[in-house]
Input
Amino acid sequence: MEPTDDALAEFVAVMRRLRAECPWKQEQTHRSLARYLLEETYETLEAIDTGDRTGDWAHLREELGDLLLQVVFHAVIAEQAGEFDLDDVARDITAKMRRRNPHVYGPDAGAPADAASVTEAWEAIKAAEKGLDKQDHRNATLGLPPGLPALLYADKVLDRLDRVGRPVAPLPPAAGADLGDRLLALVAEARQAGVDPEQALRDAVRRQL
Output
């Protein structure tokens, strides 16, 4: 079923009323809700793993609702403070998607494109928007949240370094090398094989249970 404006509008109305009448929700701030956003994100990842393993995606549907709750809750708090509202959030992300997907919305829309060229264009447009020199390796960590899981953080940094011609060797360092260097080499190996190292490790852990 396609989502409807009425369904989303009703949910926003519910959250506005809860914010106005529920004592607990009245006390919440962007900062106090941060932990719940993180928890719901990880529960959504768990639901994806479950659905991929079982073919039952009902749990993902539920968790996406909980994740949407966090988005709308933050938007309602901002709305009441006169900062922005959910429509502003939607307009911003819509505009960003159009800007960063010129193969669909640009003057060359419809021209042949592959995933690699789409990603390259996305990164170039992102760098231009932020006024960055994408060839500057010092920008390899700019904009990356320091709280990202270590494997995901390493994967993203290596991707950026690879784009500026500074790839990290996928071969494991010599015996006795620092454990961190060996882990980084494994992330590089995963990237070369087209494997998500974060997901690969989660899958390996599950196989032990």
Remarks:
- The domain at 5-98 is CATH 1.10.287.1080 (Helix Hairpins).
- Residues 30-54 form the longest helix (25 residues).
- The chain has two domains: 5-98, 137-209.
- The CA atoms of residues 51 and 58 lie 8 Å apart.
